[in-house]
Every structure is written in C-alpha cells, then in structure tokens.
C-alpha cells in the first residue's frame, strides 16, 4: 500500500442532533476545517435556517477511522459500513442520502 496523508471517515453532528457520515481522502493533514459535502436539500435548508436565526450554533466532528496506508477502496468500504452502523440515511437521524 502506498503511504499518503491521513485519510478519514468522520461523523458530523449538527445543532438539531442529526448526523452526516463522510470521508476525506484529500491530502490535508487534518480534516477539521472540512464540514462535509452533502448536497441534501434538507441539510441546506436547515443550515440556512440556523444561519438566519442569529443564534450561536456549533458542529461536532468526530473521527471514526483514520489511516495513512489504506486504499481508497478500503476507505469507501469503511465509510459505507459507518453510514449503515449510524443509520444516517434515515432522514430522522441523518443527512446521508445513500450508503
């Protein structure tokens, strides 16, 4: 396996308690500045509502898996497993649209 910067599978918890599970396979040393790339309309609407509310709100990002040596195929498999484990495609629980 080729060594690379750390690759991550992460979970973001939004102010309403819903989650998004994703992965980062960029060459960033750490994904803390990254908050997901979901194109879920409900997430976009919720974020706009929070932004317009003028209330303070926070996101919580948790690293579920990290590796310097896994392959992209392995990273995608682990992301898929975590989406299933956290049931984040259920719209009552999360913002993932597919596993």
């Amino acid at each position: 396996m080729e060594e690379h910067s750390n690759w991550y599978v992460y979970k973001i918890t939004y102010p309403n308690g819903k989650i998004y599970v994703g992965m980062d396979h960029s060459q960033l040393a750490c994904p803390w500045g990254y908050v997901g790339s979901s194109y879920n309309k409900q997430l976009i609407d919720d974020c706009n509502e929070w932004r317009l509310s003028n209330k303070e709100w926070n996101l919580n990002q948790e690293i579920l898996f990290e590796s310097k040596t896994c392959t992209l195929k392995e990273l995608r498999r682990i992301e898929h497993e975590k989406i299933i484990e956290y049931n984040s495609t259920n719209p009552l629980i999360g913002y993932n649209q597919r596993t």
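The first strand starts at residue 7 and ends at 13. Residues 5 and 27 are 5 Å apart (CA to CA).
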